[in-house]
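# nightly structure sweep
# worker-07 picked up a monomer target from the shared queue
# config: single-sequence mode, recycle default, output format = structure tokens
# input follows
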Amino acid sequence: MSAPESAAPDSAAPDSTAAAGSGLEEQRLLIRRARKEMLRRRPDRREVGVEPPIRVMARIVQELQDECAARRFDPAATRLEIVNRTLGDVNVRLITECEGDEGGPQDYRTLGDELGIALPGEDLNGYTASGKRYQWLREQMTEAERQLVDSGYDPRVYDLQSIGNPLLRGLLAEDMRQWGLTTTAEHVALGLGATDCLDKVLRGLAYLARRRDEPPGAVLFPAPGFNMPELQAAAYGYRLHMAPTRAEGGFKLTGPLLSRHLEENPDVNVVYLTVTNNPTTFAYTPEELAEIQDVVRRLAQRGRRVHVLADLAYLGTGRPEEDRARMHSLTSATDVADLMIYVSSFSKTHTLTGDRFGWVVFGETEFARAMRMSWMNSVSSLPAEWQLRFMAYHALFRENPRLIERIRDLYRLRRSRLRRQLDRFDKEHHLFERVYLDDDATIYNWSKLRKGEDCFSVLEKTGIAGIPGSAFGYSDDYIRFSVGILPVELD
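# output follows
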């Protein structure tokens, strides 16, 4: 995939004076025309560029926005006609959904204030933040530090184990026990978000292999899937083994498929599994998870150890009762507990991407202790202020579980509105073979394009920038859109 060249206004383009003097609807038409002009200048799409597809699309959007600014289009018209749906992060400062939106009388603009992100007096699209929760979090950090010092742990000095303070790790272990997993603080290690945790786990497993005078082995990645761990695994010397899934099976790794890949590839010793999938939005059922563990169990009985690296980044964005059933299935297989690794984060489920709160839970104590060398050799010691803020947010969500429900409700509203918008565009432009429903989870939409369409043509015709399937190890017949950063505007 290759990026288009940046466009310059040609003789047919409107001059800046004409653009500045136009009404909103007229400017929207002019922006659509400029959008097509720029995208027509792209090189042959068959050429493979050196940039990852997600960066290509993000850069194209930025170039389009810069072009509109240069032509002095109204920013309101630009926002409606050039929409970046590439990144998944939720920006609570940009929430506009409020009273009268579908799903009940909710004002989601207040989330930034309720989460303590909004500054005192900050204007959140017409709602003025009180800043009370912002101040509360800072007071809670002071209280957390007192608790740590009183317990004999000083966050301001070097943490020899490098895995974070025992009070917070104990609280996170307690959270995991609600799923039926027998854990203590000894099983938990903190990290700077789920991505950092994944990196440390892969680093640690490679290190343990080298101590046994063995190569790191291979990591099995179901496709389509989140690709950052692939880059991490490659950096630590693993062979990457892709296991393409089928649309008919919900793009999921089945027990038989996993068994076949493992039998044919004896060097695979890690299976990366996103329990609720990015990009497809489909989640594994308890039965499907039990199938996967059955495969790992049978191999363990024959002396072959294959770790399951379970990414739980989106666990909590779906229906609570279904998430509970998934986790009980994952954690109930005590005979393979030493092969299970759980990676969690507040980034997507709690809209706290910038704060980087993540943690790993290992299913077995001795294995957890052996993995600590990876933490010592990377961060050396976790930041004190970061740990205190992590503790403050943990206290916030324990005291205010309704906040998580509101975040889930916002995601559900945006996914529903995006599907409606895509259906409308499909009727107008015939873009999609199928706009997939989701399992009421994540912050994405995963859809299949009609023959002859791709992410460029979708952007040209609708103004919406998505990410092609190749970014997730799959076919460019598919495209992923995020509902995260921006609200879905329905005309």
